[in-house]
Design brief:
Layout: H1 3-8, E1 16-19, E2 23-27, E3 37-41, H2 53-74, E4 78-81, E5 92-96, H3 111-121
Antiparallel strand pairs: 1-2, 2-3, 3-5, 4-5
Bound molecules: guanosine-5'-monophosphate.
Amino acid sequence: MTIFEKIINGEIPCYKIYEDEKTFAFLDINPETTGHTLVVPKTPVDKLYDLKDEDYLALFTTVKKVMQRMETVFGSRALLKVVGTDVPHAHVHVTHLDPSWEYGKSLTLSPEEMQSIADRLKF
Ligand code: 5GP
């Protein structure tokens, strides 16, 4: 079982942003920007192209909503990234053009700050 399946099942805690039948979105534990969110399909495939078309569409429908929410909350353009070298469960990173953003660098935020950001982003 992947670590993201454990998060989806509630076995590992997370700062949840959104959930529906096919997708799950939560804050990345090592955020590159405030609100750095991971959007994952509930089907635990390794690569995005392993998803069935309907699951791929569901994933990117959630990505779209998270991007819109990110821009509303932070007032800056949303960015997408797909890597997947650490966790073999397909996922899309959603960040935004925070002036302090640097590729691959993470912020140190307290649990209270993470919770407060999740509360602002969730929908
Ligand atoms: P990638 O596989 O795209 O290179 O990176 C995986 C991402 O998942 C990383 O940005 C990492 O911080 C995040 N991540 C790994 N384990 C956990 C976890 O247990 N909880 C959360 N919220 N994020 C995680």
